[in-house]
Structure formats: C-alpha cells, structure tokens
Design the sequence.
C-alpha cells in the first residue's frame, strides 16, 4: 500500500532514480524510460570502450588506456550478463532473440568464431582480451537463451 | 485509448474527488486522472479496487461499448 503523505514527508530525501512510493502507473512509465536508457547506456559504453581500445593501440605507450577500456567492457558485459540471467530465470527474455540464440545452429556458429578468434587476434594481448570477453559473454547469453526457452516450455506444460 | 467517462461519472455520483478516490485505492491522483483520460490501462487488481470503492462492477466501469 502507498504510504500516506505524512509518512512520505518523514522519510529522508529520495533520489530521482528511487522507485519508492511510486504507484503502478508511475512505475510502469518510469520503467519504460529506464529500460530505454539502459539500452542506450549499454551500447554507448560498449562503443566508447572499443574506441578507447583502438586509440590505445594506435598510441602504443597508452597501455593504461587499453587496460581501462577492458575494465569498462567487463563492467558493461557484466551488467548485460546479469540482465540475461535474471530475465531468463523468469522466462521473460525477448522471445525473438531467445528462439534464435538458443538453438543448435548458434553453437556451430560460435565454434567457428572461436577458431577465427584464435587465429586473428593471437598477436595483440589487449585485442585478444577484448574480443575474448565479448565472445565469452555471447556464449553465456546463448546458454541463458536456451535456459529461457526451457523455463517457458515448463511454464506452458504445467497445469 | 478512449476516455473512461463511466469511471468519471461514477466517481462524481458519489461526490468524490480524484484525490479521494486515489487515496482509497492506494494510488496517486495522477493515476486516477490518467485512467479517466484514457492514458493508462490499470491492472486488474486496481480495476477491482476501484470498483469496490465506487460500489460498481467491472462491466459498469471498464467494459467498452463498441457502437
């Protein structure tokens, strides 16, 4: 139940991204906005970290830049993985994505990519690490997609 | 979405303001306003709660008549 005005005023100052005391309509609208921004932030950080990696490799003394780009990527991919784990556990992953990503053809595709990756990037440590992290993330997402499909199958078979 | 005039008139018939209805149903006045203007589709739980407060049925307040 929503708190009364008095109870609300006694609470310490709230944050703009705090959903405390939002009712169903406010939450619904807020979550739509937040999801769009999450999408934008994910891709922005990904592109930015890649740009940093490229710049770090051009300027060969900037090892720090390359390392920072990889740390940023780990954070970005980490959040992406957590999102995939939590949505797949409830069977609410984007169905269009999950049905394609969770099938056997995708596994073959990843095996081919693994061979290409080992051949192309073995020379550069930072690029290897970067592409490796993306590759591992994609593998985990594929597993989560398959899990999502299993959860949906179980939900639709329960009486 | 069409405006929910049935809800508005049911509320007015009981001489109840949007604020009062909001407090009794546990939502904000903004939400009641959005429902009446047709800008928001409430959950079934909220629909039932509104009906309970206004002493109406779901059909009375939320059934759309296609003319």
Sequence:
């Amino acid at each position: 139940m929503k708190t009364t005005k008095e109870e609300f005023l006694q609470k310490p100052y709230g944050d703009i991204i705090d959903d405390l005391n939002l009712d169903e309509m406010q939450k619904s609208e807020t979550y739509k906005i937040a999801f769009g921004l999450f999408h934008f932030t994910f891709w922005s950080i990904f592109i930015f970290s890649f740009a940093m990696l490229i710049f770090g490799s051009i300027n060969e003394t900037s090892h720090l830049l390359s390392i920072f780009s990889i740390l940023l990527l780990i954070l970005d991919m980490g959040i992406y993985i957590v999102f995939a784990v939590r949505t797949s556990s409830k069977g609410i992953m984007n169905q269009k994505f999950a049905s394609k990503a969770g099938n056997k053809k995708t596994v073959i595709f990843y095996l081919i990519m693994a061979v290409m990756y080992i051949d192309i990037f073995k020379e550069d440590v930072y690029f290897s690490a970067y592409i490796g992290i993306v590759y591992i993330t994609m593998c985990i997402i594929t597993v989560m997609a398959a899990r999502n499909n299993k959860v949906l199958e179980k939900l639709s078979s329960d009486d | 979405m069409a405006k929910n005039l049935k809800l508005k008139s049911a509320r007015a018939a009981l001489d109840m303001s949007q604020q009062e209805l909001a407090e009794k149903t546990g939502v904000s006045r903004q939400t009641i306003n959005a429902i009446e203007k047709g800008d928001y589709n409430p959950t079934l739980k909220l629909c039932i709660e509104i009906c309970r407060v206004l002493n109406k049925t779901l059909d009375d307040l939320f059934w759309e008549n296609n003319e």
Notes: Chain B touches chain A at residues 26-28, 30-31, 34-35, 40, 42-43, 46 (CB under 8 Å). The radius of gyration of chain B is 11 Å. Chain B has a mean pLDDT of 92. The CA atoms of residues 43 and 49 of chain B lie 10 Å apart.
